[in-house]
Amino acid sequence: MTTHPLNVLIVDDSMLATEVLRNALVELGHKVVGTAKNGIDALTAYRRTNPDLVTMDITMPGMDGLAATRHLRKDFPDARIVMVTSHAQKGMVMEALKAGAKGYILKPIKTDKLREIIAQVTEPALAH
Amino acid sequence: MSEDVLERGLNAAVAVARGGYGVAERRNGHAMPAAAVRSRVDDDRARRIGWFKSVAASLAAKTRDYLSGETGIGVTEVHAATEHVEHLKLRDITAVIGVGGNVGVLVAFSFPIGMADVLYRQMTSGIEVRPDQVDDFREATISELANVIVGHCTADFAADGTTVAISPPVLVYDAKRIHRMNNAMFGTIQVLTPQGEFDIHMIGPRGLFDGEMNYRGDL
């Protein structure tokens, strides 16, 4: 179980999804340090907030989540990015992992699923 | 069905509509009997209808799952029409999503304002919504519902191992009728619940209409 509160950046063009994620993250004891509505804004917000974790939607206007993940991982190789998306196809999961995402969960957002994926993504780092 | 196949089928349909044979001959560079062209058009139309039916089945199932899981609203009836649909009726608020890859359709979730309000209240319970944010959250509710349902459908659409992209939802506010033009194919699913009803429309080929459901012209 993750014991450290994480600073989280939420990247999603839906204000509903953003608020549902914010509530779930706060419920899990984490802190939302920033939000962004597309990939371009995400790059700026990442530099500004230096988060421990990014939740990244895929389908967004302008730069999508796959491109943003590739850019972030290029500039910040240690960035921990979890895709939070509605895409249920295996091919998209593979593309996300290839782009550098550490995890992938399907919308609609459930607190239990979020807790699980955050633990998977962050525990190895927190253990050191 | 690939876009290439679809386009070939549509071109053949145009050829037949124009008196056929000669146009097909010039496009393909070799002669083809009119009966063979008609047969190919019929086959292609049957494939397109079959494809529309499978898209409709996926949309209906995922909509039922989503409503039940996220809002507790049960779907009491679903009526799907995938043939001979000559017009679509958009209700007060409609979220339109483009589906790419082999699918190549627009999917439009169209709600009367009362049903949109029911969904908004269900899906924002637990979220603090200021009075000045109500309209924005209602729009976000409709958009997110459409996005999640179509996103889940991509698992069915991409069953052949391809990747299917979807566009961000675009909202259309005009209640209007859209009449089917030449090559367009329409399908519609009416979803009935105890709290109200709404429609899911399918429009293909995707390129015939823009994101706000305006006709762009023949291919």
- Silhouette of chain B: elongated
Largest interface: A-B, 23 and 32 residues
The helix content of chain A is: 40-55%
What Rg of chain A, in angstroms, do the CA atoms define? 13 Å
In words, what does this structure look like?
- The complex is a heterodimer of chains A (128) and B (219).
- Chain A has helices at 15-27, 39-49, 65-75, 90-99, 111-127, and strands at 7-11, 31-36, 53-56, 81-85, 103-106.
- In chain A, helix 2 (39-49) packs parallel to helix 3 (65-75).
- Chain A is globular.
- The mean pLDDT of chain A is 93.
- With 128 residues, chain A is of the alpha/beta class.
- Chain B is an alpha+beta fold and 219 residues long.
- Chain B has helices at residues 3-17, 21-28, 34-71, 113-123, 134-157, and strands at residues 77-81, 87-89, 93-99, 105-111, 170-172, 177-179, 185-193, 196-204.
- In chain B, strand 3 and strand 4 form a beta hairpin.
- In chain B, helix 1 packs across helix 2, helix 1 (3-17) crosses helix 3 (34-71) and helix 4 packs across helix 5.
- The chains are: A alpha/beta (128), B alpha+beta (219).
- The A-B interface holds A 13-17, 19-20, 23, 59-61, 85-92, 95, 106-108 and B 66, 69-70, 123-124, 126-127, 136-137, 140-141, 143-144, 147-155, 157-158, 161-168.
Please give a handful of descriptors for the protein shown.
heterodimer, A: 128 residues, five-stranded parallel sheet, 5 helices, 5 strands, 48% helix, 19% strand, B: 219 residues, two-stranded antiparallel ribbon, 8 strands
